[in-house]
Every structure is written in C-alpha cells, then in structure tokens.
Fold these 3 entries.
Entry 1:
Amino acid sequence: MTFFCSVCNGFSKLNVNCPKCNHEAKDCGRLGDFMGPYSAYLAIDELKNTNGYPDLINHQCVHLAYCESCHLEFHKMISETEHNNI
C-alpha cells in the first residue's frame, strides 16, 4: 500500500485559517521542500525521517502555511490518502 497527499497532488485544496487572527492562510507547499537547497529532489520518506514530526508513521504530510494578514507562518498536518497498488 502507498499513501499520498491529496493537496500536493492537486485533488484538494488546503483550507486552513490562521490560529492567530483567523484569516484564511495561504498554502506554501510541503515543509520538506524548505529544508535545504536540494530537499525538493530527495525522497519524501527520507525527509520525513529527519523533520522532527511523526508524519511518516502517521501517514501525514506537513505543509507550510502563511497568513498574509498577520504574517504568521505555521505548519498544518494533512492526512494522507491510502492507495492500493494492484
């Protein structure tokens, strides 16, 4: 079985409000893409082992969100969707 992020793959949109001011926040993509200059080219599961979150075990994708109203950056956990390879 494999798991995938529906937001990263364009099946859904990240709809999250800022925890500080409650305005809609902007999705800036996977946290792993911001971990270093070559992180976007590394295997997703490899980055999940080093980001400090239990996202690999819990089948989640950590997204970076940004509120343009109050300039807060925060992380949002997205539950990944299970896909059966046949």
Entry 2:
Amino acid sequence: MSAALMRILRRVSPRLQTVRICRSNSHKTEDFLKNEAVERRVRRAMDEQKSITARLERGQMPETDRRALNQTLVEASRVINAFEKTQLALRELAEIQTLICNTSAEDQQMLELLREEHGELSRRVKQLHTELMETLAPAEDLDHRSVVLELASGRTTGGDVCQQFTREIFDMYQGFACYKHWDFELCNYTPADYGGLHHAAVRISGDSVFRWLRFEGGTHRVQRIPEVGLSSRMQRIHTGTATVIVLPQPREVDIHIAAKDLRIDTFRSRGAGGQSVNTTDSAVRVVHLPTGTVAECQQFRSQLKNRDTALRVLRARLYQCIMGQQREQTHSARRQQVGSRCQSDRIRTYNFSQDRVTDHRIGHVTRDIKGFLRGGEDLEDLIRILQEKHDLLKLDDIS
C-alpha cells in the first residue's frame, strides 16, 4: 500500500464504491517516462551501475581508476533514483485519483482529504519530472549565465502598434524576472509615443537565467485592434512585430577586448527634457573597431556608469557573434527541430482578438493572453515545454 494512501487511511475511514476507475491526469509525465531516449538512458545507467559494482567488488585496481568508477557510479545512481522516485509518485497519484473517482459523493470529508493529497502529489510529480530531466540531460555551460536582453520594435506602417507591443513584451519579461526572483537592471530604454517603446536593453541576473530565456530570442508577432495611437482610429486588426535578442553574459575569460580596438564617444542624453537631460555629455557610445559592433548607454547621470554598462552590452554582443559562428560550424539536427534561435525567426504570435498565444516552434497554444503577458506561470509553463523538447533531443544525441 502506498505512503499517500496510508496517510489518508490514518485520517479517516473511507466508504468506497468499486464501480469505476478514472485515469490519472499525469499523462505528460507518464509519456515522458516512456520516451525512447529516456528509456535508453535509464537502461544504460542500470547497466553501468551493475557493471561498475561488479568491478569494484572484484578486487584491487589503481586508486585513480577506482575514483573514476565511483564518480560514474554516482551519476548512474542519480539517474536511476530520480527515475524510480518519479515512477513511485505517479503510482501514488494514480491510486489517489482512483479513490477520488470511486468515493461516494456524500463522503465530503473523504473527498476533501483525497483532493488535498492529490494536489500535493501533483506538485511533487511536476517537481520530480523537472529534477529527472535535469539529471538525464545535465546543464550546459551557458545555462547558469546572466543575460543581456534587448528588445526593438518592428518597422511597419503601423509603427505605434509595434511600439506598444514592444512595451508589453518588456513588461512581460520584467514580470517574469520578478516571478523568478531575478535582478532586472535597466541598461537602456528609449520610449515612444502613446506609451510605447522603441528599444530597450536590460541585464537579468539570477539562477539559471539563460536556461530559462534562451528560447525567447526571435521575432514576436502581434495581431490586434490598437487601443491607442493613430492606428486605433481605423478600428481594424493590425499586425506588428517586436524583436527580442537574448545574449548570454560572458565571463572575463571568455572574451578579451583590447583598449586599442575601442572608440569611446560621449554625447548628451536624449529624452523628454528635465534635469540632467541635454545638459551634460554623460551618455556613452562604444564602438569595437575591428567588427564595427556598437553599444551605447544613456540611462544614468554618471558617465562612468554609462561607460561600464555600454562595455558590458558590447561584450555580450561580441560573445554572441563568436558563439553564433561556432554553432554554424557544429550544426546539428537538434537545432533544426527545436529552432536555431536566430533573431530573424518568427517564434510566437499574440492574437488579441482570439485571446490566443501560439508558439510556432512546437505548435503550443495558450489562452488568456493578458495573463500570459504578466510573465508568470503561463510563460514559465511554455518555456518548460521548450526546454524539455531541447533536452530530449540533446538526450537522444547523448544516448
């Protein structure tokens, strides 16, 4: 008898009907465990555990070999333990679901306890699913990096549509950063008319930021009847775009920029007026002469702080360029199936009239567009699906 069922039985004696059995709601995790690549990886871990245990029990070997074998054994055991814990939680969840479906409607106390246990087990299955995926497909080097995220409005006839949408996308990522407890540091922000946004750059730091945002780079398309601006007078659906660029923040050892390769210009901040605007040359533009890459910052009153921020953005852009060249040289099937994440790719459409967000890479549809744009759980769930697709393909390469 499962631990979950024992907890329920200790709290109340149920009156059960044995007429019908309901299926579990955890099909996603069940399908994941039956995935061919997952099964291959788990079988390999079991074979490694059996083989290494036998070798370690046989007798003498050099200490370096023993340490290496022990390390492999630990990794194999982590995979097996995570897999078995997920299986166990799924079985317990199925038992609780069956009890819910077979319990008399009059037994409200029992149903309440069962539903409470079901909710706790569902959250545990979701957590174990994530932990198992991370165990099967270890994190990549860039996954734990901070990022520089840039947004730019599209250039179409309905420019105000693009600019308003770009601000909403900016707010979505700011909301997501708050939801994930990340630091959201503004590097540049160029507002537009009617509360819109031309361009913005932010540095987001925290736990595994690049892993969560790596698939957000690309063209985001909006279809809507504008609420404000010149386009709103026409009262018809307009199409606009916003471009999102996600740059992993390099470490000092990743890229070296020689001082002689930089040209640093200062200019007066541009803005709507007020104190410290157009009064001092505090804004900074940095040009990398060998590549022509440019970064600028006018967000702060301090010229030194603007210079440091512009250099940080420049380093991220140069690093992304280098990484892009390396990815082209090591082109794989995984990139074709998940998406290259090139910034020209149209990755998502936000259709306001149909209250629908569609991710074109995986065909995933989310309703409640305003909830999605708050940058909370809905966005997290979509990104998690993209992560899993990427990790399964990576796992297929590994196994």
Entry 3:
Amino acid sequence: MSDVITLSVPGISCGDCRQTLKGAVGALPGVSTARVDLEGRTMTAAFERAAMLPGIVAAVEAAGYEIAGYEVGGHMERTAS
C-alpha cells in the first residue's frame, strides 16, 4: 500500500522546476510516482514506506526549494513556521 504526500512548494514556477523536482524525488527508491502542479505550486508523490518521508522532504529541499507545508494521506503534517 502506498502513502501519498502533497507538498506546498511556492518556488515552483516553470517547466525546469517541474523536471528538477520530478527527477529529484522520482529517483528515490520506493517512490512510484512524482507529479508537479505548476499552477497549484504543489508536488505529489506516492511512496511505499513511511520511512521514505524524510528522504522526500530532503530531496525537495536539496534541489533548492523551500517547502511551505505538506500533507500525508490528507492529514497536515507540517506547515510553514
């Protein structure tokens, strides 16, 4: 069973951003899909293990993007401070 994370990433603004994030998160072991919505400035990823969550967050931040908050399975996990 997969978990789904939806990250609010305000800095997403172009096709290059989309490709960078999809590549960074989609390459992680256990991630089955990574989608970026430019209009909504969000990224959604389906992943296999809850232990993957810190890796997904780290990959987005390592790609140079700030995360304003995220939800896992429809439950808010983190919001901007």
